[in-house]
Amino acid sequence: MAHLDLQTEQPSCATDGVWLACIECGEQFAPFESVRYTCDECDGLLEARYADLPTWDDFAGSGVWRYAAALPFDEGVSLPEGNTPLHEVPGIEAELGLDRVRVKHEGMNPTGSFKDRGMTVGVRVAERVGVDRLACASTGNTSAALAAYGARANLETLVLLPAGKVAAGKVAQASLHGARILEVDGNFDTCLDIVQDLATSGEAYLLNSLNPFRLEGQKTIGLEIMEQFRDEEGDYPDRIVLPVGNAGNTAALYKCFRELEASGAIDSDDVPALTGVQAEGAAPMVEAIENGWDHIERWDEVETRATAIRIGNPVNAPKALPGIRSTGGTAVAVSDEEITAAQRALAEEGVGVEPASAASIAGLRKLRESGDVDDDERVVCLTTGHLLKDPEAAAEAGVDPEPVPGTTEGVVEHLEAN
Ligand code: F0G
After folding, report:
1. How far is the CA of 386 from the centre of ligand 1 (A)?
2. Dihedral angle computed from the Cα positions of residues 219, 221, 227 and 228, in that order, rounded to the nearest 10 degrees
């Protein structure tokens, strides 16, 4: 089980009040002197630790870097990112019988997904460490973000994608931003195995969510939700529902809340229940939560229309499982049909998201039906990527175009006849 105490006494290996700690054995490491993604001693996941944890008064400005006091640097390679809208969705509220449902639309980031929040910090760390090539495995969004931030930082970028399983918009982004794209004959988990080997042998700096600094940037989703919800609604949300792939966001949000609690910025009963949603065809986290396991069993065969979360080996599970459990959350699997129905429901409110994002609404719907979410809960659903990321899925879920003649008369006739 993960090592959960946030230790704030600064070890001698710290640089400017920042260090890395293993969540399993507690071993501490210097943050930027050498490249390291997991613990030298036990191979456990690492997380960033700080000598000083900020409270609300320490934040100023807008976007990810508003929260610099909670990050390892004061500024980063920025496009800029964050400051995404918290949408009201009255139709969905009415249908679900809930008073307050808000949708945090991370698809409104510069490259159209939450990954930008991690990259602005992760690429800054890469500059500090002094690497010349960045790499990631990706179901698409990470590659789009890394390509853009790598381009901005003038660093070479290598992305490994599962061949034929990445939505068109994402490949186009990686391509135009100039990443070198390797299409791997295998699924995302195979891509991540390979890129981890490349990183370990020094071929490239890894910017998947195994990299603890990327999750520091993604922590700002939680900080932003808490501030926005409090300012608009007068209190903090009771629950945050999010799609889960590699479980990086789940881990990042949990760390966000642990730090806020440790600094005294919130009380323990202010921590929202972290609720993860996976596609039925790729649901090892749901399986682990349902069975009470402290680890996940890797799924070798995965399939879902929500290609962004087509993942069988969520590498951040050791951070995310304790997060879901200790915040009183849960995890639920949804079918592709339920995902598409939720994508349409959001679209009817004017909110355009890609399939994986709609999993959060589909999951909330399911948890309302099962009675796991109470009538008086205030819920934030995270939508992680923009509609245009996956134009094919959007067109399939939407209405069909109607062919008409090229004359006004013909168009009027068509409208009258149909
Ligand atoms: N939603 C979208 C749109 C994503 O692209 C991802 C992950 C997730 C949800 C899941 O987030 O991994 O933090 O649990 N996409 C990664 C990628 C794997 O390569 O773009 P997670």
Report:
1. 12
2. 180
Residue with the smallest CA separation from ligand 1 atom 12 is 246
The reported pLDDT for the residue numbered 34 is: 84
Residue-wise pLDDT for 28-73, tens only, equals 999 998 889 999 999 999 999 999 999 999 999 999 999 999 999 9
Condensed to tens digits (0 to 9), the pLDDT of residues 327-370 reads 999 999 999 999 999 999 999 999 999 999 999 999 999 999 99
Q: Tell me, what's the pLDDT at 4?
A: 52
3-state secondary structure the chain: CCCCCCCCCCCCCCECCEEEEECCCCCEECCCCCCCCECCCCCCEEEEEECCCCCHHHCCCCCHHHHHHHCCCCCCCCCCCCCCCEEECHHHHHHHCCCEEEEEEHHHCCCCECHHHHHHHHHHHHHHHCCCEEEEECCCHHHHHHHHHHHHCCCEEEEEEECCCCCHHHHHHHHHCCCEEEEECCCHHHHHHHHHHHHHCCCCEECCCCCHHHHHHHHHHHHHHHHHHHHHHCCCCCEEEEECCCCHHHHHHHHHHHHHHHHCCCCHHHCCEEEEEEEHHHCHHHHHHHHCCCCCCCCCCCCCCCHHHCCCCCCCHHHHHHHHHHCCCCEEEECHHHHHHHHHHHHCCCCCECHHHHHHHHHHHHHHHCCCCCCCCEEEEEECEEHHHCHHHHHHHCCCCCCCCCCHHHHHHHHHHC
Residue 7's pLDDT is 64
| Pocket perturbation via mutation, ligand 1, pick of 109, 139, 250 by most ligand atoms within 8 A of CB | 139
Nearest alpha carbon, ligand 1 atom 4: 308
- Identify the structural domains of the chain with CATH numbers, from first to last: 1-52 (no CATH), 86-108+215-397 (3.40.50.1100), 115-210 (3.40.50.1100)
pTM (predicted TM-score): 0.97
In testing the pocket of ligand 1, which one of 240, 241, 246 has its CB within 8 Å of the most ligand atoms?
A: 246
Q: Which residue has the tokens 């910090």?
A: 121
Q: Is the pLDDT of residue 1 over 70?
A: no
Which atom of ligand 1 is found nearest the CA of 242?
9
